[in-house]
Amino acid sequence: xxxxSQILSHLFNTPSYQKLHQTQQIxxxxxxxxxxxxxxxxxxxxxNQVLFFALKHPCxxxxxxxxxxxxxxxxxxYQQSKEELLGVMDIKAFVSNNAYQKSQTQQAENLEVxxxxxxxxxxxxxxxxxxxxxxxSIRKAILCxx
Length: 146
Hints:
Blueprint (H helix, E strand, L loop, with lengths): L3 H9 L5 H13 L4 H4 L2 E7 L2 E6 L2 H9 L1 H15 L7 E6 L1 H14 L18 H17 L1
Parallel strand pairs: 2-3
Antiparallel strand pairs: 1-2
Protein name: DUF721 domain-containing protein
């Protein structure tokens, strides 16, 4: 009786599941990257012998560009040791607009808005006319927020 791993490896080698096998290889390569880079990746794909990384935020893109030589060295070592992703000759990264917009809206949704706690019932003991008017304008602003 065959093991599950043997059956899966046989399936991955069939032409109809080649794309699935490729995405699995890419995921394994992602785990070799440093965690700071891995966290910023939305998705990856291969096109014309180039491995494209879609990143979540422009800061991740900047860090990715800074560590590009390290990533290319990791890819070469990965290709030699695992004999996978042999068709990949170059690596490029871009910021995914959808992920960036989603992160912006999530940040906006996470902002908590607090209501006005003050009641505006304080004594205005200021003797100077200008300061007294400032305190009264503060009182009006507090009452308008209720």
